[in-house]
Each structure stands twice: as C-alpha cells, then as structure tokens.
Amino acid sequence: MDSLVNVFNRRSIRKYTDQKISKDDLHTILRAGMAGPSCANTRDWSFIVVEDKETLIKMADANGIYAAPLKGATLGILILGDLERSVEVAKDYWIIDGSIAGQNMILAANALGIGSVWLGTYPQMDRVERQRELFQLPEDKIPHSIIAFGYPAEEGVLKPDYEEDRVHFEKW
Amino acid sequence: MDSLVNVFNRRSIRKYTDQKISKDDLHTILRAGMAGPSCANTRDWSFIVVEDKETLIKMADANGIYAAPLKGATLGILILGDLERSVEVAKDYWIIDGSIAGQNMILAANALGIGSVWLGTYPQMDRVERQRELFQLPEDKIPHSIIAFGYPAEEGVLKPDYEEDRVHFEKW
Question: What contacts B112, CB < 8 A, 6 or more positions away?
Fold first, then answer.
C-alpha cells in the first residue's frame, strides 16, 4: 500500500472477524514497532503479545470500559516502557518512545489489511497498576498502552482532516 | 513509496541540503500529523512551523546540544500539547497523542523523500520552559518535541532491527 494512503486511511477498528493473523504478519507488526526513533536509541520498550481469549478478556476488564474491543480482538499487544534500557538523565522518554512504537505497529497492520484500535493505559494509573498485577510485571516495566488487532468487521470512521487553526507559522 | 518500506527504511537525518520543502509537501506532513488516533479523538495538539533561520537557531539553542541539526534544517515543527482540547479525566494523554503526531509527520516526510530527526523536548522541563519562553506560549500549550526536516545530505544509519528478547508471548 502507498505510504501516504496508509497514513491517511487509517481509522480505529473495534470489530473484528475470526480470521487469524499469520506469524509473518505479526512479526512485521512487531518489527515495525521496533523501527521508530527512540531517545538516544535506547529502544526503551518491550511487548507482550496475547492471543489467548481468556487473557484478552482479563486485559480488557483491567483497562476499563473503552477497552471492550479487546475482548473480540484476534490479538492484543501490551506495550511496556522498559526502564532497564532508559538513560538515567532522560528516563521518562519511554512514554514518547512507546507511543512511536504503537503508531508504527498500527500503520504496519493497516498496510497489511489488519485493523486496530489504540487503548490508553498510561497515564491512568489505576489501569497501569491493574495491568501490572495481571502480568506480574517487574518494577522497571511500565504498562504503556494496549493495541487491539484483527481483520476489520466494520468500516471505521475517518476523523476530521486538516485543521488550519492548529498550525501557526513562525510564532504562536 | 510502499508503506512497509517507508516504516522500515526511516532513519534519523541530521544533515540537509538547501532545497526548500514545497508548500504542498509541508501541508501533507502537517495533515499526516493530524491523521493519527488521539485520546477520545480530542486531537490535543497544535503545531508551530518555523522556517526563519534565526528562529531555528534560537529553538536549537533552547533545546540543548543534541538539537544542533535544527540549525541546518529547512524547517522545524514544534509540536505542542494543547490542553485546551484535552479531556479533564485524561488530561495527560497529550504526551502520547503528540508523539503519534510526530511519528506520522516523520513517516509522511520520509515517503516524500524528506529527511528528519526527532529532537526531544518534553519531559526535560528546562527545555520545555525555554521553548515556552521563546514562543511566549500560553499556559495550556506545552512544548512536546521538535522535528527538524530537510532533504537529506547524508545517508543516515539504520538501527538494529527485530530483537527477539523484547517480545513476550501470553505472559511476562
């Protein structure tokens, strides 16, 4: 798929068919997650890939009502900030680096015809703590976001496009 | 450009030719910045586009030594978290939403043959405050990151690819 078309036709998909995602496509999605820039190239993230239906339901319940699409997803990826990798003087860039990884995975999936929706976890600390507990995470791994993936069973909605008033030239 | 190729061949470019970026391409880059998902579709960002050489130098100086590439860039975009738009219960998603916008702009630029490098501002608060002062920003606009853009005058370096040990299946 053309790269710009891919960026512009992405939309959040919350309903999925039963079609499995192949190992190759999953590998491409994860590789895309690792292909973005990160602070001082620390690559301060890790990923938990979940296909087990029961675990997906537990993750969804731990993440609040807006995470319900995960219950019908083919797989979910929990992005973790991995502080083991981060630079001491700039520790909190894991939030930005994990977000870059998430968007790259969403775009790679879209290019493969796979839909997805971003489910916010951090910085809502109740969600963060519940995911931490569910996966028994070490202290230095921080639940960042969950992306639900699956072949689309709905069209999704394109959101507003260019908004002129959000762009300022040379000064505020 | 093929979408997956675009994701995988992106690299940070810190040296640029004198070639200008057209208005159309700038529009495409900004539109890409607005095409990602955001928390509850708040689109809680704004952008300052800078082409003026003197301002680029001031922005670079305000952002620390690693921002030096901005001095030779064709243009820089300062991403702002725009709290005027954010949801009260989930205010701090602007950090994630601004990051998604940044990566989308970088990928759109790459698809157009334009190089870029991500210059971290937030959460290093000295940098945030200096950008705020430089642009005399209102309280509810938070400097997030600067992306420097220009046609590449260097190859850039591809970073490590897939790392197996960063992926966990079903459990930590």
Answer: A4, B25, B28, B29
Chain B environment of A92 (Cβ under 8 Å): 123
- Per the structure block, which two tokens stand in for A55? 């675990």
Distance of CA A101 to the CA centre of its chain: 7
Is the ipTM, as predicted for this complex, more than 0.90? yes
Distances A66 to A86, B41, B148 between C-alpha atoms, Å: 30, 13, 35
Domains and CATH numbers, chain A: 3-153 (3.40.109.10)
B50 touches chain A (CB under 8 A): yes
Nearest alpha-carbon partner for A81 in B159, B123, B125, B10? B123
User: What residue type is A136 in one-letter code?
Assistant: Q
What are the angstrom distances between the C-alpha of A151 and each of A22, A27, A113, B170? Answer: 11, 16, 7, 20
Q: Does A82 touch chain B (CB under 8 A)?
A: yes
Give yes or no for B27 touching A (CB within 8 A).
yes
Q: Is A116 in contact with A77 (CB distance < 8 Å)? A: no
CA distances from residue B141 to A15, A102, A129 in whole angstroms, order as listed = 35, 24, 29
Identify which of A97, A84, A112 has the alpha carbon closest to the alpha carbon of residue A34.
A97
DSSP category for residue A10: -
- Predicted confidence pLDDT, tens digits, chain B (172 residues): 999 999 999 999 999 999 999 999 999 999 999 999 999 999 999 999 999 999 999 999 999 999 999 999 999 999 999 999 998 878 899 999 999 999 999 999 999 999 999 999 999 999 999 999 999 999 999 999 999 999 999 999 988 889 999 999 999 9
Amino acid (1-letter code) at residue B4: L
Nearest to A103 among B10, B82, B104 (CB): B104
pTM of the predicted protein model: 0.98
